Automatic annotation (TrEMBL):
Keywords: ATP-binding, Nucleotide-binding, Transcription, Transcription regulation. The keyword Nucleotide-binding applies. Pfam families: AAA_lid_14, Sigma54_activat. The keyword ATP-binding applies. This is Sigma-54-dependent Fis family transcriptional regulator. Coiled coil: none annotated. The lineage of its organism: Bacteria, Pseudomonadati, Myxococcota, Myxococcia, Myxococcales. Residues 4-233 form the Sigma-54 factor interaction domain. It comes from Corallococcus llansteffanensis. It comes from the Bacteria. GO terms for molecular function: ATP binding. GO terms for biological process: regulation of DNA-templated transcription.
């Protein structure tokens, strides 16, 4: 069973798209940075589709040498080439009636892209060395952590294939753009690994929690998951402080230090005021989000601001999804 957690608006919107994609047997293109859960979304679509009883076959296109693409996907007949003694079925045949998940699809060389496009359009392929075309019934879901449109514009990816794959586009944004998902995910992973490792879970100091909720998570959900595993292995049963967290040093812009916040009389009044207000807003938002465990609606309510205005302010400070 695929378990996808979250409570951000983005998460809810993605689940709606998953439902839509699951009921219609069309191609899906999942885009997003590494570790955001692209494969998990692909599996969920498969699980909820009419193909659920059949196989879900992931293919890492980035790890497939160009010359092996056809053989891996379509298989070969014995004697097709030196060393091909027996008939080997390809991944497409393994995925029959199920789903073929083409991960890192951007990495396919142009020659393989042509073959893939033809296969998707005709739903037929010819195993290497075979004389007959073979019919196939598979659903294609592709994923990439590049901007595939940009790749197409740069001439690295065929436009026709891009549009053929992108019938349902699913954009999974980085965790830093949906901070509301951090708390439920953290809780989920702590519970899961506490059970798996048979260790009591951890508790957090306020400072550690604040750090977890405001850290930009460059490795996204995968990094958060590994963080939870580490904490249970190293600190199971204990109270975790900031210095125990296995987080990377932050290159991100911090609010200006306190003395820079004091308006310098040398500076033009408007400029100094703008800087102070900005620093105040950012600190206010961060602190109130931490206090409400990333729940934007609750933080907005407590601040006395309208939810939309609060959200807009978060957006201006780069604290939420676009
Ligand atoms: N919303 C979520 N709920 C629960 N687990 C999640 C969620 N999103 C991601 N994960 C977990 O995070 C890890 C990374 O997810 P996944 O492998 O699907 O990422 P990806 O986008 O395919 O990354 P990459 O581009 O590096 O392959 C997995 O262990 C997955 O189970
Ligand atoms: Mg993946």
């Amino acid at each position: 069973m695929v378990d996808i957690l979250g409570r951000s608006r983005t998460h809810v919107r993605l689940l709606d798209m998953v439902s839509a994609a699951a009921t219609h047997d069309v191609e899906v293109l999942i885009q997003g940075p590494s570790g955001v859960g692209k494969e998990l979304y692909a599996r969920l679509i498969h699980e909820r589709s009419q193909r659920a009883a059949h196989a879900f076959i992931p293919v890492n296109c980035g790890a497939l040498p160009a010359e092996l693409f056809e053989n891996e996907l379509f298989g070969h007949q014995s004697g097709a080439f030196t060393g091909a003694r027996t008939r080997t079925q390809g991944l497409v045949a393994e995925a029959e009636h199920g789903t073929l998940f083409l991960d890192e699809v951007d990495a396919l060389p142009l020659s393989a892209q042509v073959k893939l496009l033809r296969f998707i359009q005709q739903k037929e392929y010819r195993p290497l060395g075979a004389s007959r075309m073979q019919h196939s019934d598979v659903r294609i879901i592709a994923a990439t952590n590049t901007d595939l449109l940009q790749e197409a514009r740069a001439g690295h990816f065929r436009f026709d294939l891009f549009f053929r794959l992108r019938v349902v586009p699913l954009e999974v944004p980085p965790l830093s753009e949906r901070p509301e998902d951090i708390a439920p995910l953290l809780e989920h992973f702590l519970l899961r690994y506490a059970a798996e490792y048979g260790r009591p879970t951890v508790t957090f100091s306020d400072a550690a929690l604040e750090r977890l909720y405001t850290y930009p998570w460059p490795g996204n959900v995968r990094e958060l998951e590994n963080c939870a595993r580490f904490l249970l292995c190293a600190h199971g049963g204990a109270r975790v402080d900031v210095s125990d967290l296995p987080l990377l040093p932050e290159p991100r812009r911090e609010p200006p230090p306190a003395d820079a916040v004091v308006p310098a009389w040398r500076e033009p009044f408007q400029e100094a005021k703008r800087r102070v207000v900005e620093a105040f807003e950012r600190a206010y938002l961060q602190e109130s989000l931490v206090a409400h465990a990333g729940n934007i609606a609750a933080a907005a309510r407590a601040s006395g601001k309208h939810r939309r205005a609060f959200f807009e302010l978060m957006r201006r400070h780069g604290l939420t999804e676009r």
